[in-house]
Predict the structure of Calcineurin-like phosphoesterase domain-containing protein.
Amino acid sequence: MLLPILFYRAFRFLLPLAVLATIYLYFYPLFHGCAFPEPTFSSPADAARSLNGNAAKVPINVQQATVAPFRLLAFGDPQLEGDTSLPDTEGARFPDLEDLRTDPNHVLKKIATEDLPRLLQYCRKCLDLWGNDYYLAHIYRTLHWWTRPTHVTVLGDLLGSQWIEDKEFESRSERFWKRVFRRGSKVAEAIMDAEPGRVVEVLGDERTWSRRIINVAGNHDIGYAGDINSERVERWKNAFGKVNWDVRLQLPLNPRNDEVSCPTNSTASPELRLVILNDMNLDTPAWDTHLQAQTYAFINNVISSSRPVEDRTTFTILLTHIPLPKESGVCVDGPFFDYHEGYRGGGVREQNHLSETAAMGILEGLYGMSRDASAPAKGRGRNGVVLTGHDHEGCDVYHYNAQDGSGWKAEPWTMAKTLNVAGDSERVGIREITVRSMMGQFGGNAGLLSAWFDPQLGEWRFEFANCALGVQHIWWAVHVLDLVVVLLAAVALAASIVEARTGRRDRSREEEAAVDGEVEQRVVAEDGDACTNGKHSRTGSSGNGNMYSSGVGLGTSRKRSQRQED
């Protein structure tokens, strides 16, 4: 009885902990307050109010709801590892066993000190890879269910290395789709293959966007400028989509045909423009100049197909991998460039940020910002935001130009708001958000970006929030605890069943022994009576010795009969 009681007590002690831990793990967005930021409007006044009397009426649906019409769930740098990260598999197979007969002492010592530890390390790493996939999958699945995004993106470095062979690339790609982002899908090729600006959809009409994964190519996926080649780009395209493409998402028309105020230079419905850009080969030298030319041609096509810079009803969201340049100390990753040797082309081998020159193609080209205050829209450029990956620690900065010849600068977003740099009309600028990595050692993060149209301002607004699960050890600990509780319950139940069956058998044996004892006592008593009667018969008769033997036979017969009856 002691063993079942011990297991049952351990089960009762751990069960509440397991239940609480499991509730936390599967509802962690609730406990962390993770949600897409709610829209805030300049005024609760009628959405048709004009902007300083200088506005045109456009029939669009901009009801001041509590849920933003565009909600982007963003993940950074999952970096799926694979076979290349495993220890030496050949050593884990005990290759020295062949010499066991010739030198057993040496072989056994080597197995114990080298091969066995290597095998254990190999098994541990395999388990770690398996657990890491499901840890990342848990983050995606839980947040997707809890927050209900309209769009999802992974901001580069989906895989752990650009140098892996095609077979390993296919294996990791399969894990990405079938395990980590299960039930997710690539963006339709018809959208990605279209010319920039050609694909226009009504925001919210196509519900499949919530399951489409907008994949951004990273350096660990296709390489830096010095090692990107057409083969890597092609296999990336086949598995995850094109490296450069865009889509325009317009606000839906209002069925009631309500009119709201938009600037007079706006001729169409307010729209969001998603631009997915491969910025790995913006800097030089590049190994494949043809691929680099394609990237710059794409940027030029996006610029030429954009609305006028003065049109504030357009909001451009740039999704790319390498962050814009910034001074040391602004973010964890400071400025850094490294180049290949000359015999390998001398191209970019590694970089933390884009160069100033490459960044100008984005800030002054794609967004149309200008250092000249006399430029269109006073140099303010297009409204928008930049989302990047690469820096695993994450960062949130505001890039601005005071138009006084001092050039571009970057300040942490919180400081820019405190110093009113972000709200200064004398400065042009844009916010860049580097989403912290979703890898376990960085806390399992995800970015939540909400965007909505403010009819009072006549332009788009957005807010961003971060949500972190915690290190991967939390996921492991909860599931190990759940497994222990289940095993304790199973063992306690099994021990109770065995104990019950053993107890029944013991009781049966005791009952049988008791019955046998009673029978023996009755038989002995009857035999004693028979013996007494036999003596009396011998005394009263004339030497008939058969009476005694007859009495013994009768007692034996009664004993057998009694046992059979019992």
Q: What stands out?
A: The longest strand covers residues 445-454. The CA atoms of residues 186 and 240 lie 6 Å apart. Residues 44-60, 255-259, 540-566 have pLDDT under 50 and may be disordered.
